[in-house]
Specification:
This protein has 516 residues and is an alpha+beta fold. It has 3 domains: 178 residues, FAD/NAD(P)-binding domain; 164 residues, D-Amino Acid Oxidase, subunit A, domain 2 (D-Amino Acid Oxidase, Chain A, domain 2, 2-Layer Sandwich); 107 residues, Orthogonal Bundle (Helicase, Ruva Protein, domain 3). It is 35% helix and 22% strand. The strands form 2 sheets. Strands 3, 4, 5, 6, 11, 12, 13, 14, 15 and 16 form a 10-stranded mixed beta sheet that branches. Strands 1, 2, 7, 8, 9, 10, 17 and 18 form an 8-stranded mixed beta sheet that branches. A hairpin with a 6-residue loop joins strand 9 and strand 10. Helix 2 packs across helix 10, helix 13 packs across helix 16 and helix 16 runs antiparallel to helix 17. The two termini are 39 Å apart.
Length: 516
């Protein structure tokens, strides 16, 4: 990628930011015939895009708030994403337990409307459950005063694996993507943005890149790039923190998730099976400053444990938490944002154009990344004077597309899609790589080698946090797996013992922040 960049550092489009938004724009722009470069300061999906609730969903809460256009758009995109990446997105049953008589008709009618809005892309019809069936589907549900439940279906996915797949998809079509390469300045001519300066962190090389259009898709760091463009730029992003706890599977032994419809602060809470663990979240805490490694606040952790305990017979405690992670949503900051609860701020996206021609994509949610990208590239074509081409991503299979018949594979291999055959061949050719990376983690050592060779993993964190999900599944086990991971990576990258030791120390320090 770097060699291609040096050979011809002139592009139609340069995208700053390698999360869901930036990767979506890179795919759309490249598939419309625009020569595209994406630069990521850290690693793909390092920020918000690897720290979600792992749901591809229309948003039941937005339906209750009356935001029908957002729900319609998200449900349509949910269906398209399932068709385009079935190896990464699957149906998930959700149950709302009923403890009051009126909850049956109230949630039942609302979820029938949810089905209706999804149309032909609906996953399955919602239905009322009796008490016995509710207990059978969620055995650890709180049974005192339980009347039954309402079941509906949404989508579930692995967020950082989808991001890596999107990066591979963009590359498959000819885009150039470089991680660990922050943009340090915008280039201008007569006040108009004409390119960027970037720093390759590994080599220290300074890169000067020309572009017809530059896109700011940096999520919670959007305002930093806007201030790089104009120091007087007003804030357009309101960061909102969401925290999740990861528990052992015993807290949700069935295959259905629980949707808690009303928490202390009026949000919804999810208790979800994910990669043979249980994910519980989330919170909505307004923050003033963005952080690349946000940390859960003590009150957020207590909030999740307290509200989850209301619906679980066997209550989780702090000692049961395998990992805690926090992410920051890049909400579009309304003019009257001061004092407005972030749960009230819309999850819609906006495409902004600065006087200098800088295009900024802000807001949105994982589920709607494709539509966000389509709107952004429509703007790029107009602004750059490019011949307008139709968007093709509605029916674009993502890298590794494989039909759902592959469901017999375990989760840790299913996410590779059609690439899994090559990964399996690697383990046959080198049997030592079939050994587990750690006894408490599901990953064979081959996943580390594969991540370095084919997924641009450059650090131990890249592998254990995002190419695999070890850090989220069990932060302590991930820390213990760091030496083996560093050894495998050093062999692949030609690094010395000093590099390995530094990587181990850096990652184990990071992992401490994921433990209570």
């Amino acid at each position: 990628m770097l060699e291609d960049l040096r050979r011809n550092p002139t592009f139609d489009v340069v995208v700053i930011g390698g999360g869901a938004s930036g990767l979506g724009v890179a795919i759309d722009a490249q598939t419309r015939g625009l020569r595209t470069l994406l630069l990521e300061a850290d690693d793909f999906a390092k920020g918000t895009s690897s720290r979600s609730t792992k749901l591809v969903h229309g948003g039941v809460r937005y339906l209750e708030q009356g935001d029908i256009p957002l729900v319609l758009e998200a449900l349509r995109e949910r269906g398209l994403l399932h068709l385009n990446a079935p190896h990464l997105v699957h149906h998930q049953s959700f149950i709302i337990p009923r403890y009051k008589w009126w909850e049956g008709p109230f949630f039942g009618i609302g979820l029938k409307m949810y089905d209706l809005l999804a149309g032909r892309l609906n996953f399955a019809k919602s239905r009322l459950l009796g008490r016995d069936e509710t207990i059978a589907k969620i055995p650890n549900v709180q049974t005192d005063d339980l009347l039954g439940g309402v079941e509906y279906y949404d989508g579930q996915f692995d967020d950082s694996r989808l991001a890596i797949t999107m990066a591979q998809t963009a590359a498959d079509y000819g885009a150039i993507l470089v991680n660990h390469c922050p943009v340090t300045a915008l280039q201008k001519d007569n006040g108009m943005v004409t390119g960027v300066e970037a720093l390759d962190r590994e080599s220290g090389e300074r890169l000067i890149i020309k572009a017809t259009v530059v896109v700011n898709a940096t999520g919670v760091f959007t305002d930093d790039i806007l201030r790089m463009n104009d120091p007087a730029s007003p804030r357009v992003v309101q960061p909102s923190q969401g925290v999740h706890l990861v528990l052992d599977r015993k807290f949700l032994p069935g295959e259905s998730a629980i949707m808690v419809p009303h928490t202390d602060d009026g949000r919804v809470l999810f208790v979800i099976p994910w990669h043979d663990r249980v994910l519980v979240g989330t919170t909505d805490t307004p923050l003033e400053t963005p952080d690349v490694e946000p940390r859960a606040l003590p009150e957020e952790i207590e909030f999740i444990l307290r509200n989850a305990a209301r619906y679980l017979a066997h209550d989780p405690s702090r000692e049961d938490v395998l990992a805690v992670f926090a992410g920051q949503r890049p909400l579009v900051r309304p003019p009257s944002a001061d004092g407005l609860p972030t749960k009230k701020i819309s999850r819609n996206h906006e495409v902004l154009v600065s006087d200098s021609g800088l295009v900024t994509l802000v807001g949105g949610k994982w589920t709607t990344y494709r539509k966000m990208a389509e709107d952004t590239v429509d703007m790029i074509e107009q602004l750059g004077g490019f011949t307008e081409s139709p968007c093709v991503t509605e029916k674009l299979h993502l890298h590794g597309w494989r039909s759902v018949e592959a469901a017999e594979l375990p989760d840790e291999l299913l996410v590779y899609g059609s690439d899994v055959q090559h990964l399996q061949r690697l383990m046959v050719e080198q049997p030592a790589l079939a050994a587990p990376l750690h006894p408490k983690l599901p990953y064979p050592q081959a996943t580390v080698v594969w991540a370095v060779r084919h997924e641009m993993a450059r650090t131990v964190e890249d592998v254990l946090a995002r190419r695999t999900r070890a850090l989220l599944l069990d932060a302590r086990a991930a820390a213990e797996a760091a030496p083996a991971t560093a050894r495998l990576m050093a062999d692949e990258l030609g690094k010395n013992e000093s590099w390995s030791n530094e990587q181990i120390t850096t990652f184990q320090t990071l992992a401490q922040g994921y433990l209570l």
